[in-house]
Amino acid sequence: MPVKSDSKLPRGVYERPKGSRIYWIRFTDADGKLHREKSGSKSNAVKLLAVRHSEKLQDKLPEKIGVKKKVLFSDLIDDAIRYEKAQNDAYHAHDLELKLERVRPAFGKRDAATITKSQIVDWLAAEKQARKWEPATRNRYQAAISVVFRVAVDNNKLALNPAAGIPRLREDNQTTRFLSPAEEEKLTAVVQARFPEYLPVLQLAIHTGTRTSELLRSQVGDYDANTGKLRVRQKKVRNSSAFRYVPLTPIAVAAYEKLAAGKKPGDLLCSKTNGGDLQYTRYWFDPCVKQAGLVNLTWKSATRHTAASRWVMAGVPIGAVSEFLGHGSIQMTMRYAHLQPENNDRAVAAMMSFYPAETGNRCGTRYGTSTQERFP
Question: Other CB atoms closer than 10 Å to residue 301's CB: what's the count?
């Protein structure tokens, strides 16, 4: 049975051959010359036609018309990795490279111009199910693929980024896993036994709540003994200060001094045992988590979430915690607010303080008439 062709197409978009689902565009350039250009999917055709019309209005001639040289997605991956290494720190570049190497077998040998939005969505869905990804992990892979296309567009190797319009999955940021004191004791003991040189790295991360990339950017000299604070070199939040400052506990100070021992000011604080730069932590952290018998614990859970949770549970104001963590907005920090249950009691007591004592007694509550009595 022949495939039914698409009869409802915008003007200037057509399917060739009929029923193939391969779409072309027809347009005239700024000189009035008629052109036909293959664009792949229907959505790509509509977007590309808009680009060509925009070029015509700007009195620009299309740079590439007709049969284009095939551009392999694998080559674009290499371009994206080079770009990331030139623009960002080693941690982010390495993280992107790891993700794209997992993407490469699926799309590497494909002509990048023929990869469609639906194919990317299907691959992400299949990988999420097969690898039991959380929504956040799936979104990070989507972002990595989008970087490849974005760099290609910037380099004039492609006209469109098919990954740009893919909706992100909603991430559940309310469930926060963090270390209990007993779990920290188990994990610390294992790290001390297997990788003692990395124990100060773990301790400094737990006590400062820094992002992994921030921790690995830390330099000798970032701790000021006069203020008792660590200068954190932050890049995550746009339009924010280049630095923020986090107070160090005695444990964190001792960890910093161990890491800084024998190094010069300006040297990277965290390094490998062979002296090279420490770019990631999973190769030693994950085996220790497994040996310690801890479940569902990531590096971020053990460090950043633990620091935030402990600050909040100890009564540190949410605003201060947000500042220590370098959050772009306090809404991000509010995921930890439930860890201060006494705030609920305070809120109820504050409201009931405006009523006679017997009102609360009749309702079976314990609140009196005086705010001062409740909050001496």
Answer: 17
Whether the bond into 181 is cis, omega within 30 of 0: no
What is the rounded distance in angstroms from the CA atom of residue 194 to the CA atom of residue 289? 11
Residue range 356-362: mean pLDDT, rounded: 64
Rounded CA-CA distance 236/233 in Å is 10
CB 81 within 8 A of CB 40: no
Identify how many contiguous H helices and E strands the chain contains and give both numbers: 17, 6
pTM: 0.59
To the nearest 5 percent, what fractions of the chain are helix, strand and coil?
50, 10, 40
Say if residue 346's pLDDT is above 80. Answer: no
How many residues are there in the chain? 376
Tokens for 349, please give them: 């007591």
CA distances from 303 to 20, 24, 166 (A): 53, 52, 31
Q: Which of 249, 250, 246, 259 is nearest to 200 (CA)?
A: 259
First to last CA, the chain: 83
Question: Is residue 232 a contact partner of residue 205, using CB atoms and an 8 Å limit?
Answer: no
Q: Residue holding tokens 């992100």?
A: 168
**Residue 158 backbone phi and psi in degrees, to 5:** -135, 155
**pLDDT greater than 50 at residue 266:** yes
Q: In this structure, are residues 247 and 232 in contact, taking their beta carbons and an 8 Å threshold? A: no
